[in-house]
Write a structure and sequence with these properties.
Layout: H1 2-19, E1 27-32, H2 37-51, E2 56-61, H3 68-79, E3 86-90, H4 91-99, H5 107-113, H6 115-118, H7 121-127, E4 128-129, E5 132-133, E6 135-137, E7 141-142, E8 145-149, H8 150-155, H9 164-176, E9 180-182, H10 188-213, H11 217-220, H12 223-236, H13 248-256, E10 260-264, H14 269-275, E11 284-288, E12 296-299, E13 301-305, H15 314-324, H16 326-336, H17 352-367, E14 370-372, H18 382-396, H19 402-416
Parallel strand pairs: 1-2, 1-3, 9-10, 12-14
Antiparallel strand pairs: 3-13, 4-5, 6-13, 7-12, 8-10, 8-11
Bound molecules: beta-D-glucopyranose (BGC).
Length: about 425
């Protein structure tokens, strides 16, 4: 199956070369999944930057948080010989496309712009394959965050929880007051995003790495993993009845509007608060999932430049250069909720959550507490990620108890890897 896919992809790539790009010369066609209000506002920063350089933008949005649907559309486009110019990509997916020979060589742009010395190693491992730069990192997000409505917490006498026990006490208080404790969207990638923080809080950094990076069966099937699933069951008991299928940004809106107390979500959620004119510390709180204050589970959005036949095009080079410019890195990430993909950008323009995000990232990188997010394709390839998704979601929806879930996790991962 895999080799058939590879052959199909190779044929399609050859077709892509002969068919050429669909958009007019001088334009870039960008496939992405930034369709929420906050995401669209951030994307505009990039569009305007390029338009200022006379480069037109052909938009190819594919709704669906986490990018699964966008990746399906991408595969279809490549298979039909019509790869977009630039595509939003995450972690192992980028490596996979590079290994299939689908991506253009950005080494000249990278050398001219000095990427090697300003892009951190944690990102280079997903942007540079066999010594060749193949994508331009836009940002660094992280998943182990909690977002809270400050007025709701204040009205119920709840201080920012720092431990699991304080967190569950807060959930009880909100429930008793008739407020939905946790805003959540029941989609596999969102369940997995919550699981990133929950698993880290129970397994600790060594256990998280052993389970999701090294795929160690003893840890995947161990008592601590069972405890992580038990915590997921507590979270499930604190979401509203309509959670199933809800988009992540609608869950964020519940916190923004005071219908819910908390949301566990990556820092793209902050883009929604800002888009609604909310101010951190005043209207909302951002803090690390209790028990993970020193760890960062990250994912970085990058733009993969698809080989259009020949050398990297001048539009692709301009897009890559624009993305990595320090001024763009600041302007874009201030709006998006993420932090810069370069280590030399000032935090001056960032709000309190952004400053915390930047400081947390630097501290985690230097103390060995920075890990790729399992939920967002930075811990293992898509096949393993999807196997973990299936188990986490089945457990969240009550199909498995925690005991069964750990066993299923061991089996699913061993089949997928
Ligand atoms: C991406 C973010 C995006 C989020 C929700 C994540 O995988 O990294 O940029 O905002 O999905 O769509």
């Amino acid at each position: 199956m895999r080799s058939l896919l590879k052959t199909k992809t190779a044929m399609a790539l050859a077709l892509a070369v002969s068919a050429g790009a669909a958009q007019a010369e001088g334009d870039v066609e960008v496939l992405h999944w930034w369709t929420s209000g906050g995401e669209a506002a951030a994307l505009n920063v990039l569009k305007q930057d390029l338009e200022g350089q006379g480069i037109g933008w052909t938009d190819m949005p594919v709704a669906g948080g986490g990018g699964e649907q966008a990746m399906t559309v991408l595969r279809a486009r490549v298979t039909s010989g019509n790869a977009p110019t630039a595509v939003q990509g995450l972690g192992f997916d980028i490596i996979d496309w590079a290994n299939q020979g689908a991506l253009a060589d950005l080494n000249k742009v990278a050398a001219d712009e000095g990427w090697d010395s300003v892009i951190p190693a944690a990102l280079q491992q997903f942007a540079k394959v066999d010594g060749k730069w193949v994508s331009a990192p836009v940002n660094v997000h992280s998943t182990n965050w909690v977002w809270a409505n400050k007025a709701v917490l204040d009205a119920n006498g709840i201080a920012q929880p720092t431990t699991w026990e304080e967190f569950t006490a807060a959930l009880e208080t909100l429930k008793a007051a008739g407020v939905t404790p946790i805003a959540h969207g029941g989609q596999a990638w969102q369940d997995a995003t919550v699981f990133d923080g929950v698993a880290m809080s129970v397994l600790g950094p060594d256990g998280y790495k052993a389970a999701f990076v090294d795929l160690d069966e003893a840890v995947l099937g161990g008592d601590k993993m069972k405890e992580a699933f038990d915590r997921m069951a507590v979270i499930r008991a604190n979401v509203d009845d309509n959670f199933s299928g809800r988009d992540w940004n609608l869950a964020t809106a519940m916190v923004i509007n005071g219908e819910a107390g908390f949301q566990m979500m990556g820092d793209w959620a902050k883009g929604e608060f800002l888009n609604a004119d909310k101010v951190p510390g005043q209207d909302f709180l951002c803090f690390r999932f209790p028990g993970t204050s020193e760890q960062v589970t990250f994912n970085a959005d990058q733009f993969m430049m698809f080989d259009q036949g020949g050398a990297v095009s001048k539009e692709q080079a301009a897009l890559a250069t624009a993305i990595l410019s320090p001024s763009f890195q600041s302007a874009f990430n201030v709006v998006k909720g993420s932090v810069p993909a370069r280590t030399d950008v000032s935090d001056e323009a960032f709000d309190a959550c952004g400053k915390k995000g930047m400081a947390d990232l630097a501290a985690a990188a230097s103390s060995g507490n920075l890990f790729g997010s399992m939920a967002h394709g930075h811990a293992n390839p898509a096949s393993v990620k999807n196997a973990i998704y299936d188990v986490v979601t089945a457990h969240f929806n009550g199909e498995y108890d925690s005991e069964t879930a750990v066993q299923e996790l061991v089996d699913a991962v061993s089949i997928a890897k």
